[in-house]
């Protein structure tokens, strides 16, 4: 693998995943520009922070100077988030960043997508990267838009883009559901690095999960990047009881989207199950 970038930009650097992957990225690249609405803590010697909004073209132009690779994590999210609440960050903010990236003649763009774009799929079906979206809320819908926007501009301008449909990423596996879709900070950082070294132009979208027991998502496409799981869920349980935790009752235990799907399902469970049967017939 050849690292092609002296200087990369990381958005959402002060968030959970951003904070978790920063130490790994700092060991891979000479310079890292961090962009967030809040000051990221504990800057490394090779990190420089820009605090502000993606709607500020002056900030973006300055932050993008000399940058050839971007890892975009920043977004707004939440179980009950409305469409209007996602507009500035997840739609306009992404487009502003892409415009600045193209103006700076960037070559590689890694977009943090989400498994919630497929959140209404049942746990009994292994979700493939080619399966159509079944988003479980307006946050999830914005991630589908993000993949489409990145794909459009990657084709139109000839840069390399990778969307990572992250399952659950955190310091430890907190419940039974996450054992089927967890990824460590180290492995997400590794995937971002591999995306920044990807040779092919155009867009690719992959489910970014570790090799899990009884996985919800088919992550076999990660092998093409040269990815091998370093951290398995069963070795990073938040507490030993997670290993014996039963599957949750109701919709939370039936679909991959968990709390997002449970919060946003407005019809009855039987109708949701009928829609699953119809989706299988047409897949």
Quick description:
With 283 residues, this protein is α/β, with parallel strands linked by helices.
Walk me through what this model shows:
With 283 residues, the protein is of the alpha/beta class. The protein has a single domain (7-281), classed as Rossmann fold, CATH 3.40.50.720. The chain has 8 helices and 9 strands. A 7-stranded parallel beta sheet has the order 3-2-1-4-5-6-9, sandwiched between helices. α1 crosses α5 (185-196) and α3 (83-103) runs parallel beside α4 (138-157). The protein is globular, with a radius of gyration of 19 Å.
Q: Which strand order spans the largest sheet, edge to edge or round the barrel?
A: 3-2-1-4-5-6-9
CATH architecture: 3-Layer(aba) Sandwich
* Name of the level-1 CATH class: Alpha Beta
Number of domains: 1
Low-pLDDT regions: none
- In angstroms, what separates the terminal alpha carbons? 36 Å
Profile the largest sheet. Answer: 7 strands, parallel
Helix residue percentage: 25-40%
Total helical elements: 8
User: What value does the average pLDDT take?
Assistant: 95
Q: Give me the Rg, rounded.
A: 19 Å
User: How big a fraction of the residues is strand?
Assistant: 15-25%
Give the H and E element order. EHEEHEHEHEEEHEHHH
Principal-axes geometry comes out as globular
Kindly identify the CATH topology.
Rossmann fold
Structural class: alpha/beta
* Name given to the CATH homologous superfamily: NAD(P)-binding Rossmann-like Domain
The oligomerization state is single chain
Number of strands: 9
């Amino acid at each position: 693998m050849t690292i092609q970038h002296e200087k990369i930009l990381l958005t959402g650097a002060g968030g959970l995943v951003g904070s978790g992957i920063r130490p790994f990225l700092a060991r891979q690249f000479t310079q890292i520009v961090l962009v967030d609405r809040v000051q990221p803590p504990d800057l490394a010697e090779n990190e420089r922070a820009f605090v502000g909004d993606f709607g500020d073209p002056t900030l973006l132009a300055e932050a993008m100077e000399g940058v050839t690779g971007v890892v975009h994590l920043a977004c707004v999210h939440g179980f009950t988030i409305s469409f209007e609440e996602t507009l500035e960050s997840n739609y306009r903010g992404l487009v502003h960043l892409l415009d600045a990236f193209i103006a700076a003649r960037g070559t590689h763009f890694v977009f943090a997508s989400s498994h919630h774009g497929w959140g209404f799929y049942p746990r009994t079906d292994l979700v493939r990267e080619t399966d159509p979206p079944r988003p479980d809320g307006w946050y999830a819908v914005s991630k589908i838009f993000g993949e489409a926007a990145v794909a459009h501009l990657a084709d139109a301008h000839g840069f390399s883009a990778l969307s990572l449909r992250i399952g659950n990423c955190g310091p430890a596996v907190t419940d039974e559901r996450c054992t089927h879709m967890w990824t460590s900070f180290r492995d997400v950082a590794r995937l971002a690095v591999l995306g920044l070294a990807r040779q092919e132009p155009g867009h690719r979208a992959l489910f970014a999960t570790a090799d899990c027991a009884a996985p919800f998502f088919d992550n076999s496409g990660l092998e093409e990047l040269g990815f091998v799981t370093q951290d398995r869920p069963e070795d990073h349980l938040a507490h030993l009881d997670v290993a014996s935790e039963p599957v949750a009752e109701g919709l939370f235990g039936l679909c991959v989207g968990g709390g997002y799907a449970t919060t946003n399902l407005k019809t009855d469970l039987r109708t949701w199950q009928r829609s699953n049967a119809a989706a299988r017939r047409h897949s």
